[in-house]
Amino acid sequence: MCPFKSLQVAERTIDLNRWRARPWAAKIAGLQAAALTVILAIVFAAPARAEDGKRGPVSQQGIEAKLGYCKDCHGPSAQGYRGYFPIPRLAGQQPQYLENQLRAFIEHRRTNNIMFNVAHALNPAMIAGLAENFRRLNPPPIGGGPRGLVAKGKNIFENGVPDANIAACAACHGPDATGTGEIPRLAGQLYPYVIKELTNWGKERGQNPAQPDTSAIMSPVAHSLSKPQIEAVAAFVSDLR
Question: How far apart are CA 204 and CA 196, in angstroms?
């Protein structure tokens, strides 16, 4: 993947008339500036991962075989799995985000021993093929979040928490929570998985200081949200199509 495609994250079009009127508009501008800084760092660190550009051919049959392996855990339609240990939805996810996260496991920027063992065996062409296939899947969300929290979660997602200097989730993830580029889709993501990730963000993301990581953009947001706020946002996005 050409690293300069990551600049799409910083160039995302936002309805300025809509967002400038919000009390946290300056916070959004700060987030976008931070996003650009981190992404540029990734771009200029790309030579260290030059081998990523050497994608050998990969057959659709090979991709299908790997997809079947992934679906053993992530569900037959990649809709995720609600169990003792929640496994995330991959269906409909942004390909650039999936590619970046698989590399994050390989480079120990993200901690998960199971996914490290899975990801390090994949070449760049296979990673790209899997990401594109997951993007095309669109099963109904599993949902399951408490309905009583949805309204509160919707308000936080759309308006942020101005008193705590927390910008709206929609400012980066989009009004429909579908994400763009390396910013992930949240729509339909499992309720317990969203809670787990936001609660443990600093312990699971950005764990390799030698490798720039876009997860730095989310760190102040994840750390500023209270547990009830996290649960409300998770309940809201878990039911989105």
Answer: 10
Neighbours of 80 (CB within 10 A): 25
Residue 96 pLDDT > 50, yes or no? yes
Backbone angles phi, psi at 182, to 5 degrees: -90, 5
Which DSSP string corresponds to 96-113?
Answer: HHHHHHHHHHHTTSS--H
Distance CA 26, CA 29 (A): 5
Spatial contact of 189 and 200, defined as CB atoms under 8 Å apart: no
Cα–Cα dist 52/126, whole Å: 11
Cα within 13 Å of Cα(229), Cβ side? 18
Number of domains making up the chain: 1
Q: The domain that contains 230 carries what CATH number? A: 1.10.760.10
Supply the range of the domain harboring residue 51.
Answer: 3-238
Instruction: Please say whether the beta carbons of 97 and 127 come within 8 A.
Output: no
Instruction: State both tokens at 40.
Output: 């540029």
> Cβ(237)–Cβ(187) under 8 Å?
yes
Per-residue pLDDT tens digits for 174-193: 999 999 999 999 999 999 99
SS3 of 198-218: HHCHHHHCCCCCCCCCHHHHC
Output the pLDDT for position 30.
Answer: 52
For the ranges 1-15, 27-41, 74-88, 111-125, which has the lowest average pLDDT? 1-15
Q: Angle 23-26-30 (CA atoms, 0-180°, nearest 5)?
A: 145
